[in-house]
Amino acid sequence: MVNRLEGFSRSVFILDGILTLLFIGGFRLALRLYYQRSGGSFFALDRAARLSQKKRLLIIGAGDAAEKMVREIRDNPHLPYLVVGFLDDMPVKIGNRIHGITVLAPISELHETIIKTKSQEVLIAIPSASRDQMQRIVDLCRTGSVPYKTLPSLGEIINNKISIRGIRDVAYRDLLGRPQVRLDQRQIEETFQGKSILVTGAGGSIGSELCRQLLRFAPGCLILLDAGEQNLYQIEMELLHEHGFADYVTILGKVQDRELLDSIFKRYHPQIVIHAAAYKHVPMVEKNPWEGVFNNVFASRRLMRAACRYGVERFIVVSTDKAVRPTNVMGATKRLCERIMQAYCIANKERGKTRFMAVRFGNVLGSSGSVIPLFKRQIEMGGPVTVTHPEINRYFMSIDEAAQLILQAAAMGEGGEIFILKMGSPVLIAQMARDLIRLCGKEPDTEIEIKYTGLRPGEKLYEELITEGEGIVATRHEKIMVLRGNGIQLAELRPLLEKLKDCARHHDAGGIKKILLEMVPEYTPEENEAVL
Prior knowledge:
The protein is an alpha/beta fold and 532 residues long. It has 2 domains: 45-176, NAD(P)-binding Rossmann-like Domain (Rossmann fold), CATH 3.40.50.720; 185-519, NAD(P)-binding Rossmann-like Domain (Rossmann fold), CATH 3.40.50. It has 18 helices and 22 strands. The termini are far apart. The mean pLDDT is 83.
């Protein structure tokens, strides 16, 4: 410094900075890589001990999901897995290496590969697998005599990073193989963003999933109405603590309460109403038909009146495939609710702005009243698993798929439509029971008996989605169809509705069925005894 660096080039400072950065950074990087490769230890013996404690994991699938899973396992040495190889049916992938781990063989060679690699667990990392693919893979895994798990489906991980926490046991919804739902995100966002939305039945399986899906589209306020205290509390805690959403109101009460509805609409001014509250259990409503009438018909009408009075923009009725050619009171009341919705749409076209519509779909896996929880409990107890009839079948979809398509249909509606969600192929309930028994590690008909009990009151052997004569039209969404049936005037419905209400007040099951038959001509009532 005294001699002003005579004899030294000024570039020494630049070279010194670069070399210092490279040597110090390189040393630290080498340490990090060594730790990752050695399982977090400098000592070979300690590393060997750590690796011996990890489960040897064989991954089925060599796509993006599998690669992300390996990366997460590598980045976290405390995770209890050591990936020993991949299996994939694409010939071009076999022999390739992902993070230094080889794609060993096609999936059909699972059993031999488990023996060769001494695998202790199998992970199915194909979120987009179809029903047939998943069924084949699960059948192969069962012959491998090691535990097997899967990653969530694409519908479950829309907004979440694939994570080790997402690994779970294979469930029946994986065998159902529903393809990923394609949504018009912009259209749904334009419909729901910043809006005040009332969801009735918000604590139920469909209502609560609708609330979760609505969060993706930034609603202004969610008004959650439910008659069940515990269910309402659970969705409230989930919205607040798991999703960090605080712009909600929880209202404990019934849709039948006229004064409560008026107070809700006056204070919170909902712009969109999604009406998911209903009695849906077929045998229960068959035995208590007056409650089905009060809740599914007159409560719905009361809510529609309030929507018209307070200028709601959109009103969506969540309907069911049991409304098609109904043989039970529940289906007939839901079909009547659809007709009332269309009548209000006609009456409201000129003087109001409310767009009324309904969304009709079949059974939802995991919903309240679903057969799967019952089957699981029966399997845990050692059987028998009770199925009503060997030929009975139903349409099924997952809860998240149903909720997403309800929102898509609601965004598409212009008024008066009954949207139908494409449910794919019907599933034999007896086959579903056998699949569930196998998923639980048991053999049907030998370890767990399947017992046929006969059809329950009001139950149909086959469900339908369309009534003959309804005009079905395709929409721009491949999974949604629309029915534009002939509407009816409110004036025609009022006298019969008054008679229906009178019969319900007097618990007259025969009178209720007789009037429902007048109002829903395709209804075929059955002679089932009510509780009163």
